[in-house]
Automatic annotation (TrEMBL):
It is an enzyme of class 2 (transferase). It comes from Microbacterium elymi. It comes from the Bacteria. This is Amino-acid N-acetyltransferase. Residues 4-141 form the N-acetyltransferase domain. Gene3D superfamilies: 3.40.630.30. Keywords: Acyltransferase, Transferase. One of its GO terms (molecular function) is acyltransferase activity. Its EC number is 2.3.1.1. Pfam families: Acetyltransf_1.
Amino acid sequence: MTEIVIRPARTADVQAIHGLLAPLVDRRILLGKELVSLFEAVQEFVVAEHDGAVIGCGALHVIWRDIGEVRTLLVREDRLHEGIGGRIVEVLEARAIELGLSRLFCLTFEVSFFTRHGFTPIGEQIVDPDVYAQLLRSPDAGVAEFLDLAHVKPNTLGNTRMIKLL
């Protein structure tokens, strides 16, 4: 049996990432992403691969000088509870540190998973007003979620905003 490898995603992985997302979008657990958006962000992704098949993925998106977001973290349903998600988070954390980030944000229903990996719930604004003003200019929906802006609240109901210090 071959081992599971966590590696940077390639454009050839985008269809598989999109396929992993589909059931979670259907169940309204994650927001859908267009293929073009996944291709545009492929450099942010890592994938978990086993026997040539993508069985999990996650992305690291830089929000600001010291803050990144763990996005689109998922593992194929039949491979849950094998530690794959945790391994993906570890790789994304290492990438964040290499980039000079000191905090990681996530918006999740999986509070216990992220708590086990050192994240804690947050509520209030966690950036200073000058940074907040700059972030307001971002067209990225994830940044709006980070800022807890009213126009994204219908899409984030029930999610918990969490942060981890690196």
